[in-house]
Amino acid sequence: MSYAIEMRNIRKEFPGIVANDDVTLQVKEGEIHALFGENGAGKSTLMNVLFGLYQPDAGEIYVKGQKVNISDPNDANRLGIGMVHQHFMLIDNFTVAENIILGSEPTRGMALDMDKAVKIVRDLSDRYGLDVDPLKKVEDITIGMQQRVEILKILYRGSNILIFDEPTAVLTPIEIKELIEIMKRLVKEGKSIILITHKLKEIFEACDRCTVIRLGKVIGTVDISDTNPSKLADMMVGRKVNIPVNDSPYAPKEKVLEIKDLTVLDSRKVPAVRKLDLEVHGGEILGIAGVDGNGQTELIEAIAGLRKVHEGQILLNGEDITRLKTRKIIEAGLGYIPEDRHKHGLVLDFTVGENMVLQTYYKKPFAHAGVLQNKVISKKAKQLIKEFDVRTPGEKTLARSLSGGNQQKVVIAREVDRSPKLLIAAQPTRGLDIGAIEFIHNKLLEEKKKGKAVLLVSFELDEILHLSDRIAVIYEGRIIDIVNPKETNENQLGLLMAGRKEAGRQA
Amino acid sequence: MSLLSILDIIIPSMLLTAAPLIFTALGGVFSERSGVVNIGLEGLMAVGAFTAAISTYYLENMGAGAAAPWLSLLIAAVAGCLFSLIHAVVSISFRADQTVSGVALNFLATGVTVFLVKLLFQGAGQTPYIEHRIDKVDIPGLDQIPVIGPMLFSHVAYTSFIAIAMGFLVWYILFKTPFGLRLRSVGEHPAAADTLGINVTKMRYIGVMLSGAFGGTGGAIYLVTIAGNYNATTISGQGFLALAAMVFGKWNPVGALGAGLFFGFAQSLSITSQQIPILDRLPDVYLLIAPYVLTLLVLAGFVGRAEAPKADGVPYIKGQR
Description:
The complex is a heterodimer. Chain A is of the alpha/beta class.
């Protein structure tokens, strides 16, 4: 039989590295085919070859049995191959309709025919059940809707083969469910889908078959119905993976963090955290579950002193830190793994070593009489690189050039090494693969065992359920309930996260 | 003196001084909307003014008469377009810093034009005065309309109306045509445009070259309506005022048109002050610096950087994240 897409023996080299080595990928018509592998395994390279952004050094591509030559994205478009990029390729201040038609615009005479464009978008969105508002600007719509716009962009171009590049990285659990339904509907309409992912759960919920790539080589292609998550994870990592669970006894100690009646305003001066009370004890991991935008960001920024407290009080080890500067709060015993490691966790154009002393550089032994002691910093960095298994050519490498997982390890090494009494971990594994997640989860659990307090904020319910000793559900800036992870499930949490406390209690 | 008669003096003068600014600011809009910062507008105006001066001079010698200044506007547009190619090659193809490249354009323009003037006119510091300017005329019929006739349609140059029409035309092109949508898309998010098969480099070249053509025309209009000859100080600051007008107009052609008229008004105050009560008693220097002070106030007070196209000034490198 002929495949919708067949890539045979693809080889692609970059200076010093073979990104794809004899890779063969066969996608059947009407299936959702997962391309599964760790960050840096060569998934994106392979898809960029298919999309015409890279030229393969060897190998052939067949579309519906016909050998083709794809030299740029235009060729790919003509062959019906479309890509939903991981970082959305949308123009914020254009409308939804403008974004969709850009590049092949309907015209009336010399002018754009926006009425027709809007109609086309409405028809497409009805046909595929992709709810969008064609007249809204992209900057004013949700991330989920932005992704639907991306999908409509390629449907508008008549693509039959849709590549989704890590599409769920930015979505909330509800949006992920919707996306999977959309993908299934698209397949029913005769499209074929390649899903690039490193999340096992999605593969088992959405896909028919899965090709596993490791270090540029294909490990195998399997039917999802013939395998199970742990087998697939082992294939991907190449060794036995043990995603750790929180199995050490729950023995909370003294109050480390105490938040009383806290109100914090968001950037529009509207309360994002409203009269919130919360306590975190030594020797426990407190997970905060909630849909993005319910005040999590503002809460942790207020604790870290990055955002002004409007009302209320924050105590760290009994010390009032409400109005202290961030440096004082850090010195009082805060470790902080921020949500966005690029924006707030690292100075990307500093070296790994410099990033590792961002909070301590002014103190002895890293500085002496106002001069940085580079030898001491290097030594410290080398020690942390070893201890935290950061894969980097050296401590003088720029943070920018590391993979996401290793960047996160740099942040965690820096924060954990100072041995803070309270560790805030906001989305600590966002966008990372299983190997890195395993490492980071282990580190968080170690901190608990050492008797530290860990405040974990995550949109991944699995992560919250796996790691937490108590789960606080945040909704519209308040903690609406605190539940025991052993006595709850995703359904109940989902209801609580939607603000339905009574329904949640009964579920 | 009644308010109406004051307006009858100020408005025609404002229209005259605004036209070069409007043209040049529209050029800036094209370039920056495509994602290329262009502070070389001053230099482009200088090249346009120089080209207009010599081409009018030679066309007159060839007997072109009153058509000479009009033809030289077109020649200046071509010259500006070619000169802007330097900026395009350096900042788009070679991805150099666009601000530095723009500054270089300004220095280069003054140097080259003055050098050529000396070469062409036996070492003279300036070109001969042109005989045929684009003169201020009363528009037949329209100048008879009560109230607005004397205000808007007498003692005006046709170039002012062309500039105003151009403001709306450029707005239409940018916001109502596929070309405009594509041009703006490469100024906002070139990688997105690239994945949709839009040639980012080509669009940016077009943006910069249009800015050259418009800036050149702006400088030429200044020469054939106001200056009359070219020397090193002919375009002193006009291009920067146009740049300010573009920013004040928030990178919108109609905004640039309005801002150009505003700065034209500021400049016309010093020209017409002798005829206006109260102002005629003010020391000249206040009125002469008025446009620049107003520019500072306006830019400091009313415009935020956030309005600029997102990829303005950022070279595009394919495949970079």
